[in-house]
Amino acid sequence: MLAITRLALGLAGCALALACQAAPLAPGQRLSSTQVEALGDLPVYDTGADRYRLLPQKTADGRGSLLLDERGVVAASHHEVMVTQAAEDQVLAAAGGGPRPMSVQYFAPTGIIIVRYGSFAQTVEGLKALQAGLPGAVVRLSIQQNVRRPS
Question: N or C of the chain: less Cβ packing under 10 Å?
Answer without folding.
Answer: C
